[in-house]
Give the backbone structure.
Amino acid sequence: EAGVAQSPRYKIIEKRQSVAFWCNPISGHATLYWYQQILGQGPKLLIQFQNNGVVDDSQLPKDRFSAERLKGVDSTLKIQPAKLEDSAVYLCASSWAGSSYEQYFGPGTRLTVT
Amino acid sequence: KNEVEQSPQNLTAQEGEFITINCSYSVGISALHWLQQHPGGGIVSLFMLSSGKKKHGRLIATINIQEKHSSLHITASHPRDSAVYICAVEGNTDKLIFGTGTRLQVFP
């Protein structure tokens, strides 16, 4: 079974630029999560999708971050414009139907904003 | 104060030693997860438990719901166990709350 795929693996941008990350969850997984993990901290949930609907985006900085999962499969996370404090690893995870099921994590995208 | 606290933050051990990592939480939970994160970012789920004890190979996880505490034990530790171990709890909001992790280094 293929795991959660993410791209790119690494990205370096200047502040005020835009960036987009892509995630392809495990086939059949209804729930998709985007997490932000700042160095030395645990992951922080940014947004949770159930199929193509948003379940929780309470910690998503909506003035600069956006995410979509149009067909209930792949998802993209965008930052526009980026700030220095956005430097982090962005993790995508998926599960069958919510967090009561095991979450499978992708390898993450390491973003550096200079 | 964080809702999920782990100790120690950093841990070094010699190969073969018995290792314990602790997790305390302050919220009501439906389940607790132990995760392993290797350098490079990938996270692997080790255990999900809501009571008692689970064992997988050299790893053992226990939880005491009354005391709001869980432990992860590694028996006969090996250098390949070197990683960050993260405790995460599912609260009433069906959302995972993560601890900051314990960085383990096992030396040969």
About this structure: The two ends of chain A are 37 Å apart (CA to CA). Chain A touches chain B at residues 37, 40-45, 48, 56, 89, 91, 93, 98-100, 102-108, 110 (CB under 8 Å). The CA atoms of residues 16 and 31 of chain A lie 31 Å apart.
